[in-house]
Amino acid sequence: MQETRRRIRRPIALASAAALAIAALATASTTLPGPAPASAGPVAAGSGEAPLGPCRIATTMGVQMSEGLPTAPGYARSTGRIKALNLMVDFPDAPGQGTAMSRFREFFPQTADWFRVSSYGRLHYTPETPIPDWLRMPRPFSSYGLERGSPYEPGYRGLVQDIVKAADARVDFSAYDLINVLVTPNAGPSALDTVLSVTFSGNDDAPYADGVPLANTSFVYSRQDDGSGSYGDTGYRVLPHENGHVFGLPDLYTVDGGGTVGHWDIMSEDWGANNDLLGWHKWKLGWLDNDQVGCASRPGDFEYTLTPLATTGGPKLAFVPLSGTSGYAAEVRTREGNDEAVCKTGVLVYRVETDVDTGHGPVTVADSDRSSGGCTRRPNVHAELSDAPFGPGETFTDRTSGIRISVLDEDPETGGYRIRITRS
Q1: Contact, 298 vs 421, CB < 8 A?
Q2: pLDDT tens column, 226-239
Q3: CATH dotted code for 80-246
Q4: ω into residue 109 within 30 of 0, thus cis?
Q5: φ and ψ at 138, to 5 degrees?
Q6: Which residues in the chain are classed under CATH 3.40.390?
Q7: pLDDT of 198-257, one tens digit each?
Q8: Dihedral angle at the C-alpha atoms of 366, 371, 376, 380, nearest 10 degrees?
Q9: CB burial class (10 A; 0-12, 13-18, 19+) of residue 21?
Q10: Does the pLDDT value for residue 338 go beyond 50?
């Protein structure tokens, strides 16, 4: 059972110089109130073949947006065709700047294209705008009391109720899988000061409209414009991040910024250059087939040839379970597809923990060259972890768990890598 979830956004900062050591990762969990949503979750890992069983580390009860498999019910489907309702909202004290459709075009078609590429065409994201004009709220923005970290009650409930009243005559809410509320950028503070954008997902206590709860709703404020001149290419990326929560993915950044995952997943850093999702997330969302995942669950040596995560087909992920709630993943990252900022290709190794809440470090990337300073100076890309992938002749070692992941060689024609996993 998964309870109602709340997602808090915070400003993205260039993370501290030292990444957390995997061995020192601390876990935390919170039991949240609320009933279990009844709607179907993503089409992801089912019963499948027995050898994969130990690698399907389970969703942990009471953990907010657990990384476990399968994703709990209540979230939007993550495969097939999904319809996204987009409402452009303004207020008496913050009238819409420009046209409502110009605000919509800040995010589309880029968001739909991003999901198409990341999912290998398995997610057909269809954005719709049945109301092409600004939807004026009856109250000033300031009256809702919305700040960074605001809970759903009472401000967001009041806003959603006002949205329903204003739109219901022209919108059939039951026809949509998720809702994007694209707020006029002049409502609230600049994203450079405070990021208000937030998603409430799996929220079965949300107001109803046309017989359905508005359970999976993303709110986007301001513009994520760092002044580097890249907004036209990168400003949309806050929405794929927020929609990631609608599909059940947690925040991977922590209070220290992006220092645990860096730019290797859009759920960690959504400012700056384009980036993709981790292979674990793609398996969780149903974008990788079971035969694309290798499971090294027994003592011994296991060899895998992995193809780049950005390309369609072929083996993508090798997983080493440590317990029923944690394990290591290995995948190949290259500069293609959605991965624009990769400055060192190779095998990315990271630890997944299903008993850690969103925003508290459920994933930790292993850095192949700690304290190197990284290989990129691109703005809003965590530099230290930019050279995290392991190359031929390099080995990740967890002595405590008796795990070694060695990169044997690279196929220069395919970009694939051969690895050996050793369990003692």
Answers
A1: no
A2: 888 889 889 999 99
A3: 3.40.390
A4: yes
A5: -80, -15
A6: 80-246
A7: 999 999 889 999 999 999 999 999 999 888 888 988 999 999 999 999 999 999 998 777
A8: 80
A9: exposed
A10: yes
